[in-house]
């Protein structure tokens, strides 16, 4: 993590763009509805970490200073998507009506994303014979144009697109020069889509958050590039529900000197994310990032975990956890938790938080990973801290400190 | 809280007595079995907070330096009680066999407690016409004799006797001089049994912990007396299961900006505690102390709570909580928790922790309440902090600081 | 139970009135929305017992042959009530729109109910110095006028009004002549409101169902009167959720030779019913009827049960049950169930079922209690059968038999 | 199913042998402890279906008339196994002491089972070059010798050995003659171990129950052989816990006209069965038999199901089910169940029931599958009935009828 003061855009509170990769998905659409509702006083910012102190008085852009745009590969607009979410009972009809225009405005800022399948066939956006470098430059140009069109001090790119399967490592992922060379080669496709988007963020000088478990900017060569080019980045995989709960409970058991023997879990969900994770490849990324922290916190590796696609649940995620604990004199105790929530309603406010906080990091000239944002992630970059309370403390300290610096 | 350095007994790690009020109860018997098992290496100190760092290297008496005695009004010995707990499946047969002699030795140190009903009739221990002052002096003499018999540096009195109904306040509870006068009057009984025992601790110069919701030393006049006479005291009502869980979860919701709408709970338990709490008067003390922290933490006062006596559960406590939370854009989420544990197995290690920590406070010459021990209590004295993680931090700081002071 | 063949109205399938006592409540309004939606094909009759065989081909009035009216003491119309239920997310907006006119039509058939508080003060409907006989005649006249206005073959009165506290028994409740005399006396008020309504049903020659635990027609003198006057009646207290589940599970344990030691339960609910049951008097009726069957089925009397008003849950009822069971060789097993449902959505289809089935009973000339309808009730009249599977079998047999009789 | 009256052994209540395949496993050892405890009045027959009416007065052998023997491939005796089960807290110490001699006697009747791996290498029992026919004859001889040694009227073979992976079908499984030819061929091994044991039961003229999902006697050619040779057989896969619960609940929803959308489940268990089912091949048999009935009962095929090996749970099985149901007007309700039980304590009494009931079938000369015993099985042979209440009714009818026949 390197600091470099950047004069021109040091006011963290200036107008800031959020550029969603996956802008027409459930999380992005919900965040956009919410941003409009908060801005126009139709809803309080419940569920936003940055709405409370010490964040409320920190040098963060106001909700009203955030402007939305993004990439997607789907033709179903944000408005249509939000209508579906009204239909399933997640978004209240009343709020959709109130934010309809804002959704339309945001959707007008959505551009075609990088679709690896289309790209392979020289599809709609990517020309035959074009390289991943070409694609990334096209994406970066979209971001830069958005920034100029709205006279934004900065843009934060947030990846909320569909989870990709784990990436097969190649040497170029570990070596910046090799990577740049391969990107320029039209015959090669060394990066998954999420990483092409992350690279585009770097090219556009935008801050970046990886809300998914996809590779994104997490490849060593890209993180290095971000560091070199003054881009602050945070990841990975939003910690919104069951995993968050686990990182609240597990440290509490440890503080009591109680020993977790096993921690079993099952997640049921429908919606777009459920459908994606029904793919046994895609789900592997998710399961890995969900279990890593738990094992670190408990020392147990009996942590069976399942994610089931249950379409009739729609966007509701139901998670059951069974914790088996050894106590005094070998006695056993069990804790079961059942969590039931609209998944995107948990993610959306955190996504807005990340936009505000990365705007601060960008204004402060921080480059590379920001481990103090680990609170938001299942698999925090450059940090071994998973304890939610400890992460919350570190986040508050960082905001106070960094905020003081940019004022 | 006042500090006064006491030369003679400043080594916190010297031999220390634990004097249980309610020595033949489930918690005290389990703690005694456990202490012996830990001391002789038959069981690790799982569930003891002070077994981990920074406590492990602090100036606390070793488990092997703790000696058990106490008061009770029951004739059923600790050994018999432990046998019953083996019968119900709580204590393993193997450990009972291994600790049988230690239990017998501890029970030989048990003396007749103050029984208000017997006292009213000039019962076995209290002579006709004797005052509560007389009774307290008799109890104090038992403690002092114990201390001398075993050449103990200090004694920590821990109230683990049956929960009493809420006490009806009288002016003497608020005025030390008036209280002392009333105590000397054989025609009056201004203190509940738990407070007579607490007063005896003061007379004996012993540190004191209130593990029950009974009045104990919590009456203002007694706390003042403790402060005046250099007695460190901590309370009140051990935070061992469902309430602990609530003070872990509620602050975590708050940190997320999520708003708790209601938090309903039901506790099922049998055993001695279950039978006591089947009394609608006694249970009022418990319900009050369980809900106070929750309301402070969540701001909600929709917190219906029940405690049911379910004799067939024996010492197992099963608690179900239903938390209804408002999230982003008015969406709702629910968290349910089911906790199932042998209640005394949760309490016993914390009781040993308190003995060790109050020995340190005593060695350091701290007098009056020790708010930094709030981690252990549902209703922490002189503290508004209920957040378990915050309390754990404060406890660690206090131990480091105080430990440095006595070395 | 007496049978007497009634020529004029023997076609069970003729047009039938449902007269709701409590017509503007949540259950009645939901049933009315549902009836319209089913009739016009906007919703299938999911949750209606009578929609499946052998009922579907039995001599029951079709859904389209049911006409709604009723009494209430609230001025908030069925339409308004349904709008509130849309607001809370229980009724879909789309269905409200589709059934708006039907709701308006039904509400136009709602008349002022008997309000004991207003009556005591000679309030809006009951004149000063009027007797309960006068009141019942007024109510009966409303029902008769409704029947004539719509040329209905018969009317079924269904009590879905607010639960009343348990009634204090007086001799008149056990003696028909004494009751009739007291009713005529303007200075006396021997019946609770629910029983005045039940008496009105008798006067109007209408069949009757007690969906609440209130006294209603359950007083011996009234049941006798129903029998004498050829009125079929079924009760009491709709078995819709947790209690239904218990009467499914408890017999299944018994069939396995497993012994229930304790069965603890907690119900959380908001809405109108939640508010009513927050009254410690009213809740006593409900708790009694919920536990009676369970104790009969299990033989255990450790059945602690709570109902908590949790306003933020709205019409959602959440019920947690903890069943502790003894198995082979004294081993223990536990079953926990958590039930979460919109309470009125469970009740409404059963209310429509009862209307159809009591129309059949009426057509068949059955008078007095119909124990074969026990399937629908927590506290079945004139039956000791609580086993839901056994009740379902008895119901099917009865319908086949009675249906054959009226054809 | 054919009936043929067999004079010599028609008294169903005569002394009967239980021959366990897997005699040293958890289920068999627990059943043996229990049988002794019941016989000697140290424990009531809680959990035995046949201990209640109408079974109690049916023509079944008394518990005291049952004698235990069996096959196993493990050298760990039943007594040792029972001691382990005391250690884990499942069997009470007191009962082990009381039944020690009975266990030793039963274990003295245990002979070496057919071990396919050892057989492949001409291991301890099977000689090099021996056929599966030879092996089955050896096993049958063990059973016959047991029957003669104890002068038993009949023997019931019950397969409680480790679950095998699904068998790969070969033509011989469908054709008795072809099967018999292949069995005689020392170069072939067409049957899995469970089916070799089932064939041995046929050769020995013993009744047979398949308590596991393994192929056992379930192969068409073997069932045909059983029918031809007058052997009654029942299967398959004991319905003891979660699956039983599902077949209680699912029909109850259907009776209400409620529509199950999805039914998700997770099973956690340790012990021998947990370890076996950790094998992804073996677990496939189990998952299939668990889900078949559920899909038949609900019509839904969204029934994700998991079985996780959680060694620290020992013999405790914890199962969580989440049922998502559509009700009136498209409303949704959820039921969650958490079941926690010692798995073998559920299975053992049912195994004793099966021995008694198959003795009756044998005495009555019934041959082939007995579909009326479907109550006991996840995957009932020759029956499509999964509804537990309906199965219980059919079982009672069958017992009354068959009992009358043999008296
Ligand atoms: N609580 C939560 O909701 C939560 C928590 C952690 C992580 N996440 C992650 O957030 C992501 C979004 O979740 P969601 O529920 O909104 O999913 P979704 O399926 O509704 O939306 C994903 C969107 O990404 C788009 N997309 C796919 N490939 C793309 C590409 N190459 N370029 C641009 N857009 C592309 C899709 O068209 C779709 O609109 C998922 O990866 C999920 O795992 C969500
Ligand atoms: N997890 C927990 O177990 C837990 C948590 C918080 C608080 N507590 C409290 O700890 C206390 C002890 O619980 P337990 O399960 O051991 O109960 P218990 O009933 O087994 O033991 C109480 C003992 O106190 C004795 N006693 C009663 N009156 C006395 C008196 N006047 N003087 C001396 N002794 C007296 C009784 O004879 C009995 O031996 C209870 O008040 C309980 O509420 C327990
Ligand atoms: N699943 C279920 O919903 C369920 C199950 C069993 C029983 N019940 C019972 O059904 C009843 C109705 O439940 P709800 O949720 O509709 O309640 P609600 O409070 O929404 O409706 C009750 C209605 O009764 C009316 N009322 C009160 N006193 C009256 C009187 N004297 N005459 C005429 N009307 C009167 C009220 O004005 C109100 O409109 C309750 O008694 C409840 O206990 C409901
Ligand atoms: N509730 C229940 O416990 C339950 C319910 C349904 C089915 N079952 C089935 O019952 C069976 C037994 O369960 P358990 O818990 O006792 O398992 P276990 O592992 O404790 O016992 C299985 C026994 O079978 C023996 N065995 C293995 N292969 C053999 C062979 N070829 N011949 C003879 N013996 C052999 C093993 O040595 C072992 O002693 C399992 O298949 C299980 O799936 C159990
Ligand atoms: Na306090
Ligand atoms: Na009855």
Task: Give a written overview of the molecule.
- The structure is a homotetramer of 407-residue chains.
- With 407 residues, chain A is an alpha/beta fold.
- Chain A folds into 2 domains: 2-238 and 345-406, 3-Layer(aba) Sandwich (Rossmann fold), CATH 3.40.50; 242-342, Dihydrodipicolinate Reductase, domain 2 (2-Layer Sandwich).
- Chain A is 42% helix and 18% strand.
- The first copy, chain A, is built from 13 helices and 12 strands.
- Chain A has helices spanning 26-39, 78-87, 93-107, 116-120, 132-149, 176-184, 193-203, 220-228, 242-255, 271-277, 280-298, 343-363, 388-406; strands spanning 2-3, 16-21, 66-72, 110-112, 154-159, 207-210, 232-235, 259-269, 305-309, 316-326, 332-342, 366-369.
- The first copy, chain A, has an 8-stranded mixed sheet, with helices on both faces. A 4-stranded mixed sheet of chain A has the order 9-8-10-11.
- In chain A, α1 (26-39) packs across α2, α2 runs antiparallel to α3 and α12 packs parallel to α13.
- The first copy, chain A, is globular.
- Chain A starts with a strand and ends with a helix.
- The interface between C and D is large, with 53 and 53 residues.
- β11 (332-342) of chain C pairs antiparallel with β11 of chain D.
- The complex binds nicotinamide-adenine-dinucleotide (4 copies) and sodium ion (NA) (2 copies).
- One sodium ion binds next to loops of chain B.
Domain unit count of chain A: 2
CATH architectural grouping of the largest domain in chain A: 3-Layer(aba) Sandwich
Q: What is the total tally of β strands of chain A?
A: 12
Largest sheet of chain A: 8 strands, mixed
Strand order of the largest sheet of chain A: 1-12-7-6-5-2-3-4
CATH superfamily of the largest domain in chain A: NAD(P)-binding Rossmann-like Domain
Structural class of chain A: alpha/beta
CATH topology of the largest domain in chain A: Rossmann fold
Rounded radius of gyration of chain A (Å): 21 Å
Proportion of residues in helical segments of chain A: 40-55%
Strand content of chain A: 15-25%
Order of helices and strands of chain A: EEHEHHEHHEHHEHEHEHHEEEHEH
Which residue ranges of chain A are poorly predicted, with pLDDT under 50 across at least 5 consecutive positions?
1-9
GO molecular function, one term (chains A, B, C, D): inositol-3-phosphate synthase activity
Protein name (chains A, B, C, D): Myo-inositol-1-phosphate synthase
Organism (chains A, B, C, D): Promicromonospora soli
Domain Myo-inositol-1-phosphate synthase GAPDH-like (chains A, B, C, D): 241-344
């Amino acid at each position: 993590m390197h600091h470099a003061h950047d004069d021109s855009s040091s006011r963290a509170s200036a107008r800031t763009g959020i550029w969603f990769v996956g802008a027409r998905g459930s999380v992005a659409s919900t965040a956009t509805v919410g941003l409009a509702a908060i801005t126009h006083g139709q809803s309080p910012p419940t569920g936003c970490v940055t709405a409370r102190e010490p964040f409320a008085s920190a040098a963060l852009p106001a909700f009203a200073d955030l402007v939305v745009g993004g990439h997607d590969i789907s033709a179903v607009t944000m408005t249509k998507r939000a209508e579906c979410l009204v239909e399933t009972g997640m978004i209240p009809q009343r709020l959709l009506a109130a934010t309809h225009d804002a959704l339309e405005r945001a959707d007008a800022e959505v551009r075609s994303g990088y679709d690896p399948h289309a790209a392979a066939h020289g599809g709609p956006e990517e020309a035959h014979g074009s390289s991943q470098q070409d694609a990334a430059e096209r994406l970066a140009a979209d971001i830069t144009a958005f920034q100029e069109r709205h006279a934004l001090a900065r843009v934060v790119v947030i990846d909320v697109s569909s989870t990709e399967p784990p990436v097969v490592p190649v040497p170029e992922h570990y070596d910046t020069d090799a990577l740049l060379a391969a990107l320029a080669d039209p015959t090669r496709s060394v990066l998954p889509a999420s990483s092409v988007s992350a690279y585009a963020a770097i090219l556009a000088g935008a801050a970046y958050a990886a809300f998914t478990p996809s590779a994104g900017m997490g490849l060593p060569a890209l993180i290095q590039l971000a560091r070199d080019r003054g881009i602050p980045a945070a990841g990975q995989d939003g910690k919104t529900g069951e995993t968050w709960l686990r990182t609240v409970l597990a440290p509490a058991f440890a503080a009591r000197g109680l020993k977790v023997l096993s921690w079993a879990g099952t997640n049921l969900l429908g919606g777009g994310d459920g459908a994606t994770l029904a793919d046994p490849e895609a789900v592997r990324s998710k399961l890995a990032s969900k279990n890593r922290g738990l094992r670190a916190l408990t020392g147990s590796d009996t942590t069976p975990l399942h994610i089931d696609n249950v379409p009739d649940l729609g966007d509701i995620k139901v998670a059951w956890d069974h914790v088996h604990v050894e106590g005094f004199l070998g006695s056993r105790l069990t804790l079961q938790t059942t969590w039931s929530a609209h998944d995107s309603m948990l993610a959306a406010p955190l996504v807005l938080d990340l936009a505000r906080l990365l705007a601060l990091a960008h204004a402060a000239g921080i480059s590379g990973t920001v481990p103090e944002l680990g609170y938001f992630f299942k698999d925090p970059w450059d940090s071994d801290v998973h304890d939610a309370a400890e992460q919350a403390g570190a986040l508050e300290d960082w905001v106070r400190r960094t905020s003081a610096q940019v004022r």
